[in-house]
Design a protein that fits this description.
Distance between the termini: 37 Å
Radius of gyration: 19 Å
Shape: globular
Number of domains: 2
Number of helices: 9
Keywords: Signal
Protein name: Lipoprotein
Organism: Silvibacterium dinghuense
Number of strands: 8
Length: 257
């Protein structure tokens, strides 16, 4: 197993490296109608700073979307046919060579999965990152959760699964997006927008169940420093969204590479 410091370093590097993969025709929704006064102000200020009104008009909607819009697209739970749950933080194990422990925020996320799952049609599957799956099994006795586990190499090194890595693994485990059907995304409230975008980037018909509030707690002892405080996490998430948008824009501008 990797030690704590190497695990954290690999987590940061691999998360950033995975961002360009989420480009599968995923387009960030237009922000032009969400707050026209703010958008106009942003365009004016950017035009002055960049000395380029046309470029300012192009960039402002993306900055508005990433920095100011955090509400996830929602549908009634009755319309959805599966759950996909993304973890948030963890706790480093006492043994520095051991895999991290799930941590308290992921227990709250597991509680949320249970509430959402009860609203879905009978037989709906659950695809959950291992930190959440642990509590679904140990605390609630679920026996058919599809647990998305970290990748452990022959030498014991752990490959951290990014949000996109979890989405990709879930699709593979399901046998394709058609087998999953419309899916309820469960994630931390500040992570959920990106979870939905990433799930959709992997071809899923992804939504947040409108009847259930998502967790807002942060763990000051999380093994992932960016998940310890809200100000740090929001900067992390905005950077990740920008990387996704960057990849999508490059692919749109130069589809042949």
């Amino acid at each position: 197993m990797v030690d704590r410091r190497r695990f954290l370093a690999r987590s940061i590097v691999l998360t950033a490296a995975a961002m360009p993969a989420v480009i599968h025709a995923q387009k960030v929704p237009s922000s032009s109608d969400s707050d026209p006064e703010l958008l106009s102000s942003m365009r004016t200020r950017l035009a002055r700073e960049l000395d380029d009104p046309a470029l300012a008009a192009t960039l402002a909607p993306s900055i508005l979307n990433v920095g100011f819009e955090w509400t996830s697209p929602m549908r009634p739970a009755a319309d959805l046919r599966a759950v996909i749950a993304y973890s948030f933080g963890n706790r480093l194990a006492a043994d520095p060579k051991a895999q991290p422990e799930p941590g308290p925020v992921n227990e709250v996320l597991a509680d949320t999965v249970v509430r959402v799952h009860k609203l879905l049609p009978s037989g709906s599957r659950i695809y959950a990152q291992w930190e959440i799956a642990h509590f679904l099994t140990a605390k609630y006795g679920f026996k058919d959760v599809v647990s998305i586990e970290p990748v452990i190499a022959a030498d014991g090194t752990v490959t951290y699964l990014s949000t996109d890595g979890v989405a990709e693994a879930a699709v593979k485990r399901a046998g394709g997006t058609a087998a999953i059907g419309p899916v309820a995304v469960v994630g931390h409230r500040d992570h959920a927008k990106r979870c939905v975008l990433t799930s959709r980037g992997r071809g899923m018909d992804a939504w947040v169940a409108k009847e259930v509030s998502l967790p807002v707690e942060y763990d000051a002892e999380s093994g992932q420093p960016w998940t310890r405080r809200r100000d740090l996490y929001l900067l992390h998430d905005m950077a990740a969204q920008m990387m996704m948008l960057r990849a999508a824009k490059i692919a749109e501008a130069y589809p042949k590479g």
